[in-house]
Predict the structure.
Amino acid sequence: MVSLLEMVATARVAATTVTHDLVAPLLTEQMIADLDLLPRVDAGLGMTRLAWLTKPAVDATATSAPALTTGVRRRPV
């Protein structure tokens, strides 16, 4: 008899495979490189970009916007 734990594990593996198969063709080499940097500590931020993305906004003024976009590359249209 298959346990619930085994069924959940099987479903997770299948979901991971399906997600990878659907998303992988959409990613460019640059996007992959940028995603690989998310868990690395950014010296300018003093934390990983992934941790930074989960922090709530502390300033929402127009004067703070340029500082937020420093080093951000725009996606080609």
